[in-house]
Amino acid sequence: MNEQRRVRVSKYLSRHLRHRPERIGLTLDEGGWAEIDTLIAAAATHGFRFTREELIHVVDADDKRRFAVDGARIRASQGHSIEVDLGLPPATPPPYLYHGTVARFLGAIRSEGLRPMHRHDVHLSADRETATRVGARRGRPVVLTVDAGALHADGHVFRLSANGVWLTASVPSRYLRFPPDTSGTA
Ligand code: HQG
Fold first, then answer.
1. Domain boundaries, the chain
2. Is the pLDDT of residue 47 over 90?
3. DSSP character for 93?
4. Whether domain 97-182 has CATH 3.30.310.10
5. Once rounded to an integer, what is the mean pLDDT over residues 17-44?
6. How far, in Å, are 1, 63, 66 from residue 164 at the CA level?
7. Does ligand 1 have an atom closer than 6 angstroms to the CB of 101?
8. What dotted CATH number matches 3-76?
9. Is the CB of 33 under 6 A from ligand 1?
10. 121 in ligand 1 pocket by Cβ < 6 Å?
């Protein structure tokens, strides 16, 4: 399986396991799981064919471990826009977490804090390197430091996804530290 094909199948899985299962007539259970056979059949019916072996390769080769396979089922480990209950227990975050974004969002983030936008939760990274990569998807990355310890102590719930992404509903601006060179931005 070449890289282009792997990315194509991976994006297809993300789209239908996180955002639009109904587009191919797929129903996820409340935990976000789909039967692998049903998913493959639904995709084929809608013009996109891949084998079970290809799917397993995509899951295993994924750099961010985006998908989890459990027996005959698969789900996305995080990143959903549709309503799912991942069943993740509340967890205590490390004192600081990081969020990668870009300069054009900083004005809004300064005034309203981090919001989940079209996903369920705000996504936070345990290290700056990962946050830098997340921000770089949109342009020159800006990494914000989140005072996660204080936010947690003040009653905000954090959960840790199966692939190491920290999830929380929102981050008010006062828990954010902006890099010094961005104070004049927007
Ligand atoms: C920004 C990818 C304006 C936020 C990544 C971000 C991650 C605001 C964008 C995962 C805002 C939302 C999630 C506010 C936040 N006003 N903009 N108040 N609050 N934003 O894609 O964190 O490849 O939903 O900074 O690697 O970028 O899909 O979130 O730029 O793990 O597996 O609004 O998605 O993983 O964008 O990325 P997203 P994200 P996958």
1. 3-76, 97-182
2. yes
3. P
4. no
5. 98
6. 26, 12, 10
7. yes
8. 1.10.10.970
9. no
10. no
Report how far residue 164's alpha carbon sits from residue 145's, in angstroms, rounded to the nearest whole number.
17
Backbone conformation region of residue 164, classed left if phi is above 0, alpha if psi is from -120 to 50, else beta: left
Q: What is the pLDDT of residues 142-163, one digit of tens each?
A: 999 999 999 999 999 999 999 9
Q: Which pLDDT does position 101 carry in this prediction?
A: 98
Pocket test for ligand 1, best of 18, 77, 134, 159 (most atoms within 8 A of CB): 134
- Residue 5 to residues 11, 74, 179, Cα–Cα distance (Å): 10, 19, 38
Q: Is 175 in the pocket of ligand 1 (CB under 6 A)?
A: no
Q: What is the largest CA-CA distance in the chain?
A: 53
Which residue type is seen at 135? Answer: G
Give the whole-number percent of the chain exceeding pLDDT 90: 95
Banded model confidence at residue 182, pLDDT cuts 50, 70, 90: confident
pLDDT band at 184 (very low <50, low <70, confident <90, very high): low
Instruction: Kindly state the average pLDDT of the residues 120-142.
Output: 97
